[in-house]
Amino acid sequence: MQPSFDNTAGVTATSVGYTGGEAKTANYEAVSTGKTGHVEVIQITYDPQKVTYEKLLQTYLENIDPTQADGQFADRGPQYIAAIYYADATQKNAAQKALDGIAAKFAQLS
Predict the structure, then answer these.
(1) Can you say whether the dihedral through the CA atoms of 40, 79, 97, 60 is positive or negative?
(2) How many C-alpha atoms does 52 have within 13 Å on its Cβ side?
(3) Angle at CA 15, nearest 5°, toward 97 and 31?
(4) At 75, is the secondary structure helix, strand, or coil?
(5) What is the maximum alpha-carbon separation in the chain?
(6) Over the range 69-79, which residues count as b (16 or more CB within 10 Å of their CB) and which as e?
(7) 14-49: per-residue pLDDT in tens?
(8) Burial level of 42, CB count in 10 A (0-12/13-18/19+)?
């Protein structure tokens, strides 16, 4: 995910890490076991004058497989689930709208 955002105009920084979980240690070796309860995440810092939150959502959704509930591509396990974390109600609403749009596209296929 990181290169996709790093190559997006208006993104000023990205940082990967882990969130959630009960284990005190959250590093790749521990989290990749799927036993810490953590989820792998990316934090995106951006200039809203140069890129919209909606564009960031679009970039994210174009780089995941929403049909995989147990991970992403070759990465399997609860630590690799697709998730969107938001900062406020405006971002939450935008994320829900983007997800609803994806759901509608899949509904048309069935």
Answers:
(1) positive
(2) 7
(3) 90
(4) strand
(5) 44
(6) eebbeeeebbb
(7) 999 999 988 888 999 899 888 899 989 999 999 999
(8) middle
- Joined tokens for residue 75: 């990465």
Mean pLDDT value across residues 74-90: 84
Question: What pLDDT is recorded for position 24?
Answer: 83
Residue 10: partners with Cβ closer than 8 Å, 6 or more residues away: 46, 47, 48, 49, 50, 51, 55
By residue count, the chain amounts to 110
Please give the average per-residue pLDDT across 59-87, as a whole number: 80
Rounded to two decimals, what is the model's pTM?
0.82
